Amino acid sequence: MQRHPSYKVLQPVVTKYPRAAGCLFQTYNDIVYGQSRFFRPDDYETEALSAQGWTDVQVLELEGLSRAAISGKKPKMDATLYVVPCSLAETLSFGWLQDAFTQLSDPPEIFLAITSDDASIVYYKLSRGIVKPQL
User: Fold this and answer.
1) Higher pLDDT, 32 or 64
2) What residues contact residue 29 under an 8 Å CB cut-off, 6+ apart?
3) What are the strands of the beta sheet with 55-62, ordered from one edge?
4) Are 74 and 22 in contact (CB under 8 A)?
5) pLDDT tens, residue by residue, 12-54
6) Which secondary-structure segment (H or E) carries 26?
7) Could you confirm whether domain 7-39+50-126 is CATH 3.40.1350.10?
8) Which tens digit of pLDDT belongs to each residue from 100-115?
9) Which helix (H) or strand (E) holds 109?
10) What is the largest CA-CA distance in the chain?
11) Residue ranges covered by each domain of the chain
12) Distance from first CA to last CA of the chain, Å, rounded?
């Protein structure tokens, strides 16, 4: 991990929160270097996002959750997106999710990036309360 180019950006938080380092490293590299199909544009066609197209990518410390989140903007989108990485092996609670929203200053939605040991990532879009699904 220390030899990877992203380590310079992640080093302050991965050393502070070593238990969350793997999922942060995996998610950050997926967003910055990989291609992702988890976001859908307004017209509902699947769009392959070259993650290099994201702008304003930042690593945000979530001290109360002992981890970091990632924020940024995808191409052709003005809103800032928030991604909170976690491991498939972790147990999450509603309180934990509420804390994530609170520490990110209550965005309308966050994306939970669940990573596994086989390097796969599943992204879930979460909103506060009950939100009518888009049709």
Assistant:
1) 64
2) 4, 6
3) 55-62, 67-73, 81-87, 109-115, 121-127
4) no
5) 999 999 999 999 999 998 888 876 554 444 433 334 444 456 7
6) helix 21-33
7) yes
8) 999 999 999 999 999 9
9) strand 109-115
10) 45
11) 7-39+50-126
12) 41
Which uninterrupted H or E stretch holds 110?
strand 109-115
The DSSP secondary-structure symbol of 61 reads E
The label of the residue with tokens 């994306």 reads 111
Q: Compute the Cα dihedral for 124, 12, 106, 41 and give only its sign.
A: negative
Token pair of 95 as six digits:
């309180």
**pLDDT value of position 43:** 39
| Structure token digits, residue 121 | 């990532």
Distance CA 109, CA 107 (A): 5
3-state secondary structure of 46: coil
Q: Is 107 exposed, middle or buried (0-12, 13-18, 19+ CB in 10 A)?
A: middle
| Backbone φ/ψ region at 20: left (φ over 0), alpha (ψ -120 to 50), beta | alpha
Helix or strand or coil: residue 93?
coil
Structure token pair of residue 60: 């945000």
